[in-house]
Amino acid sequence: MKKALFASAAFAALSPLAASAAERTLTISVYAFAQDDFKTLVYDPFEAKCGCKLVVETGNSVERLAKMEANKANPVVDLAAVSMADALAASRAGLIDKIDTAKLTDFAKLYDVAKDPNGDGMSVGYTFYATSIAYRSDKMKIDSWADLLKPEYVGHVAFPNVTTNQGPPALYMLGLALGKDTPDLKGPIEALGEKKDDIVTFYEKSSQLVQLMQQEEIWAAPIGRFSWAGFTKLDVPVAWATPKEGQTGGMNVLVLTKGSKNQDLALQFMDFWLSTDIQTKLAEKLIDSPANSEVKLSEATANNLTYGEETAKSLKLIPSAVALDNRAGWLKTWNEKVGQ
What we know:
Blueprint: H1 2-5, H2 9-14, H3 16-22, E1 25-30, H4 35-50, E2 53-58, H5 61-70, E3 79-83, H6 84-92, E4 96-97, H7 112-115, E5 124-136, E6 158-160, H8 167-178, H9 186-194, E7 201-203, H10 209-214, E8 220-224, H11 228-232, E9 238-240, E10 248-257, H12 263-274, H13 276-284, H14 299-302, H15 309-314, H16 320-337
Parallel strand pairs: 1-2, 1-3, 6-7
Antiparallel strand pairs: 3-10, 4-10, 5-8, 5-9, 5-10
């Protein structure tokens, strides 16, 4: 590929189509997570297939969206991987384009929940995850999200801070269980506030929970399925709850930058990422739960991911508009009732 990129002028004159293809560059903006594996499984194979150069930019969502906004008049990013809510924010800001799904050969293979997550045609889901409760099955029984606040259990619970990805979804489900289902999440936040002195910690990093459970400081905590593998390695009995109210979760999506000069190439890359082969490889490495319904996994692998049509249909996701329109209010109420 490097030889093609730096081909001589004489060769270019003889082979204009090859030179033109080799000079194409696609710039993508993604999460920093598992980039070594993504390079091996996704980026390098796509470069080999398209005869193009892939430039990968990483960072947190705030930084990456800010860069897209700053370069709105002359985009430098062609495709981005973001959350559902961030995709809607980008759409509202005029930063992304509608996706021509007719050009995605693997689009029909996606679970319905991933085909148009925000209902505006501006994003396609590539992975999702369930959020439920990991708990010590020898110490307690979880039939409802409200069980976390039972007097006999609450002193052994860790709950995600509202500023984390798991915070609002867990609050949403707690609100459903308490019969206080409003977008402002005031009911569940107030209920937590009343028990704040009993709860072990309002965690910000799920990585700390495995040790807390091993040490028996906690018996239960709402977590994303992507964190589940660590709990399965403990030498104490831990179960994944299936509360009567259901499971919540989140989804990451792919978007096309408005004004990008490489949208056709970006669509090719999107289709490659959504393919059964690539989605299978990412799932087998426990990197992403597959949005492609044709992915077949072993039971051991599936148990560490959010997998299967039934699970996909059952997830109660917070609508992106609700998240965007209420974030500031959630934080204000949290700080008032629970504390920083």
